[in-house]
Amino acid sequence: MIKISLIIPVYNAEKYLEETLECIIRQTLKEIEIILVDDGSKDRSGEICDRFAERDTRIQVIHQENKGMCASRNYAMSIAQGEYIAFADNDDLVSEDFLESNYTYAKKTNADIVKFGRRTIYINDQNEDMGGETRRFSNRVLKGKEITAHYFDLQKMGALSAVWDGLYKKELIENNKVTFYEDFRYGCEDTIFCRQLVCYAKIFALHEGCYYYHYVRSAYSASAKFNEKALDKYKTACALEEKVWKKLKINCLNDGKKELGVTKDYLIPILFMLCDKNCTFSYQRKKDYLNMIHRQSGYRMNLNLRKLLNLMRKNKKQTVVILLFELKLYRGLLKVAERYKKVIDNRLKNGKGAV
Asked: Measuring CA to CA, which of 18, 58, 63, 326 is 20 to 30 A from 153?
């Protein structure tokens, strides 16, 4: 019996891939399959995959023309045989009990989804380790309506953002036909996959311990590069998540958690892109773009005095962004965003993470 199918899309990762695969094949859980999807790599990545497959019969390699990470993951999920599915990036590392410890916890709790701790390591353009940050959870099991009640809390703690920090019951994915959006090639694909899948989960478990080591490389990350499609992904992702709120019948009008979530995940990233040095938009074009998303219902803030005061208590900086956006004071909003971006960039350069 295959307990876990570990899916790793591979693209031009020859610098990091061998180290990643070495720690994967040393997993203490032996009843696994490892599906490597070589997505049209132009370097030696495909050869490295084949070489490891010769060493370990649990490894299956698919070579395909370049279709993107989402298409690679979708195909791998369609052929996966494991009871649970896990993901890894082709340049990250994991602990040796990454799969065994979380599979044991999944079986103990009968969880549809398990989320666990991870460490993010920041690497600069000179390939220097600038430090990082660790996110951990306390053991907790949410069932049924508890998942809906704590949806925005899970979002805030980062449990619904990445896919490589979790295990997902294959049956849950398959029965509900949840896949990665293949049009997303610049980020947000993990977020939407997690948030759509949580709609169908009956048991959602948080597991203590740090098992995954995610490397953010300033010269390697696709999500760091500006273009219009990358900008539009946030607008599209917000619309898709709005469908999740409706499906879960979440009341988004009262406590401000939805507004803070949308601001953090979908508004501030747009503002940061518009402030990026590579953005060639005129102020008028930026204003038109902000007006366009302002009309999108997912970005509607539904402010009143009570909610505004509640938001100020929770996060003053984001509340200023929300207020300026709601009042359409875009010039001031962009100036605030520019200053905020510099603070975030400096923190990331020093390995302190975002605030």
From this structure: 326
